[in-house]
Amino acid sequence: MEGRFEISSRLAADSARLWQHASSLEGVNRELMPLCRMTFPAHARTLTEATVPLGQRLFRSWILLGGVLPVDYDDLVLVELETGRRFLERSTLASQRVWEHERTLVPMAGGVEVTDRLRFEPRMAWMLGASRVVVRALFTHRHRRLRAMFGTVP
After folding, report:
1. Which domain holds residue 91?
2. CATH number of the CATH domain containing 90
3. Where are the alpha helices (DSSP H) in 1-154?
């Protein structure tokens, strides 16, 4: 059994600026905080086609609740990466047998539409309901932070 969630925001920023944010783990953590943050090695600060071997585990990232308490980990694997446009992560987490996160950036008049699509399968089927609640809350928070950082396009 799997869960799915999708959310989009129309942001008042140019594609290059948004891509720089989305492809850096510091940018990811700016979206996640103060709820949580992800650890990453120094060499993985920015994810580019030159530094990311597609389809291979890049590193294990600990997910820290409130930025301090380890609650999960992500064995981060990018399977597709189109600089400036999209990435597709297909990883495993301690809590999820399957974790798929696709982020796309589509230019539009006055800004960029950012869309996150999630597909996930908890390791224990009875956790699906809780996983749905957590994923929805986490990505709703991330998009609220994106809108606060970059502004919105009506």
Report:
1. 3-150
2. 3.30.530.20
3. 15-22, 25-32, 128-150
